[in-house]
Amino acid sequence: MSVTESGLVGAAQRYLMNNYGPPLAAFVSGSGSVLVEDSGREVLDFLAGIAVCSLGHCHPTVTAAISEQAGKLIHTSNFFANEHGPEVARRLEDLLGIGEGRVFFGNSGAEANEAAIKLARRFAGEGRRRIVALEGGFHGRTFGALSATGQFAKQIPFEPLVPGFAHVRPGDIGALEAELTRGDVAAVMIEMLQGEAGVVPVPDEFVLAARELTTGNGTLLILDEVQTGFGRTGEWFAFQRLGIVPDMVTLAKAIASGFPVGALFARAEVASAFQPGDHGTTYGGQALAMAAARATIQTLVELDAPGLARTKGELLAKAVERLPGVTGVRGRGLLLGAMLERPIAKAVQTYALEEGLIVNAIGDSVVRLAPPLVVTEEEITAAVQRLGRALHRAEVEPGEGK
Ligand SMILES: Cc1ncc(COP(=O)(O)O)c(C=O)c1O
Hints:
single chain; 402 residues; alpha/beta; Aspartate Aminotransferase, domain 1; Aspartate Aminotransferase, domain 2; 2 domains; seven-stranded mixed beta sheet; four-stranded mixed beta sheet; 14 helices; 38% helix
């Protein structure tokens, strides 16, 4: 008997852990902004694998690069260099535009943040061990990243966490100053547009103050651009709008179109604190992953990813804002949160999928929209119609969608 006799969703429920909850659907192929269910039904994907598939599903250039590299060389270990890693790192340095740096490659956003936390402590030395992060910020599920995450419900079941983390409220410059005054803070860690918290922007003046206060205090500034990076917010990286220079930037998600890659970029002076043997991971920076990242970044540059996010984002935000039941849209570029009049986000998500649209409920009253940056105007029009129908159904029968 095949494991999929009860369907892919049933098989997943039988054999996979329940940490994500039951799958909402099962997909077998995809192209651009469209995913195809196991039943053959086509669905518009306005989540893009959670801000990962910015070039859409299976972009031909990326698929070709992965296929070609898979036939040539997959993995050798980090005892050896490969033909793509240094070029991907060079491109990151170029796009970030904050001067010379060095890159550590891992396999996820959480790993990029783990590396940043370790490097910060290594650079700061004895006496400066603490990391100050923000309430609402999300940095991943591994212990260091989870300790930095400012969403306490995600932490409590797993205590004790890593010692030496504190959280301040975004916007509370006084609280940040008080933490820094103690003189024992290695780094301040900020997610500028808090995606997992409901696409909540951290006030610009707070980020600017954080840069100023950390500079004056000898503390590093780490920006988590895992979700916001690679054009999604209308800039290559969200911090560029403010013209600040962070000491480290963590990256993942869109970097390789869904091939698992995370990266930590650190200014050269900071990066030099890592000595051989201080940190590592078996798969990080391997030839196949780097081929996927190289083709992705090259294509994002050719398509002007930030420009796409700005124009398409404006269209989408304006249309969603006008829908009955939506009180406003926040976020930037194509990382948007539709705020709902009533706490029916889960029902909206369920009905939207029935209508042929993937969106993501965050909490009770926010629906996250993060389509591929290559989404077309026609797809935006169709998605907004489907979202409108889902909102209407959720208003009438909120219980059905639970
Ligand atoms: C801002 C941010 N940082 C870190 C992470 C963790 O990345 P990963 O799930 O790849 O470990 C995420 C994931 O959603 C994220 O949005």
